[in-house]
Each structure stands twice: as C-alpha cells, then as structure tokens.
Amino acid sequence: MNLSSYIDHTILKPTTLVADIEKLCAEARQYGFAAVCVPPNFVKKAKGLTAGSDVKVATVIGFPFGYSAIEAKIAEILLAMVDGADELDVVVNISAIKNNDWMYLASEINHIMPIIRSKGKVVKIIIESGVLTDEEIVKCCEIYGVAGIDFLKTSTGYAEKGATVEAVKLFRFHLPANVQIKASGGIRDYAFAKQLVDAGATRLGCSASVAIVQGAPAGEGSY
Prior knowledge:
Elements: E1 7-10, H1 18-31, E2 35-38, H2 43-49, E3 56-61, H3 70-83, E4 87-91, H4 94-98, H5 102-118, E5 122-126, H6 134-147, E6 151-153, H7 165-174, E7 180-184, H8 190-199, E8 203-206, H9 209-214
C-alpha cells in the first residue's frame, strides 16, 4: 500500500523555523503527500512553496487544547483562509466534552461550519480521543457527524495518548459514511500507519512521514 496520498506531512512544534517549513513542503512535493499541516503563521509561506502542486495546505485552529473562545476560533479561521489555507484542523473545546456541555459544543460547531463552508474549505474536527471515554467518543461521532464535517480527527499529538486502532474503529462504526477519519499522534512507522488505514482512517497526520513511506515493504509503494 502506498501511504503517501494518505499523509498530512506535519510540523506544529512551537520552535518551528522557516527552514523547517521549506523542508516540509519540499518533501511533500517529492513524495506526493496529501497536505502539509503547519502553524497558522506559516500558512502563507507554505502556500507559496506548494504552488503548482497537488499538495494542500492545512493549519490548526484552537490548537492544541481547544478552549479558545468561539469568537477567537472564528478569527483564526478567517485569517487562515485569507492566507490561503485549504484545510482547517479545528480543536473543539475538550473541556466542554469532559463536562458534558454538548449545547456549547453544538453552538461552537454551528458557528464554525458556515464560515468554512462559505469558502469551500475542508474541515477536520479534532476531539483528542486519547483522553475521552468510549461514550464521549460516540457522542462526538453523533454530534459532529450530523454537523456535516469532512473529517473527525483523533488527536493533536499533545495529549499523553495519540491515535489508536481501537479509536479509529470506534469512529468508523459510529460516523456517517460520508465523514472521513484522520488519525494522528504517535504514528512513526509504516506498520502502524497501515493498521490505522486498514481500520478506516483515510488521512494520517505524521511528522515522521518520510520514514513511514520509506519503511514500506518492497512492492508496497516504498521509495
């Protein structure tokens, strides 16, 4: 299996350098990754570096903890779209999930979706599955599935637990067929990446993307 087209080649560390973004985008073009996922302040730079290719530019909103005010997330979304972001990975209010404040979460997604949809952008909702119970994950699948998002995403990579095969399978069982799954957090080798895809993930958020695709067995899309 050639995993390149599944991968969002990602760098989100707070010490990210311009040189890191240049390397990320060059690798994304070389290997044919689906997207680069960069901090908001580098969206414009990444857009220029990927121009003329099929590589999309993604960025994060409310990252990494999700407890920014709805108005702040809207401002981030608007600025990211102005800078040229194609895809928006939005961390929802994890604290609201843990407090069962589903009315707040419904308000949050209902404010965000029309703005993103008005510009035809892709929205990925991050729920940080590693800190949630199965019941909370199922409830998220229900609320965000109805909202019509493009992807439900497992993790930011900043929690103690990232993507798991079990979480992806739970997502897939409870999400509408039209909602895709992005697995992220702790994906460092080909074998695990393939397990996540086999479980139902159609995108993988990875910083070790090159090592993953180079680690593919012979005849499986290795480079």
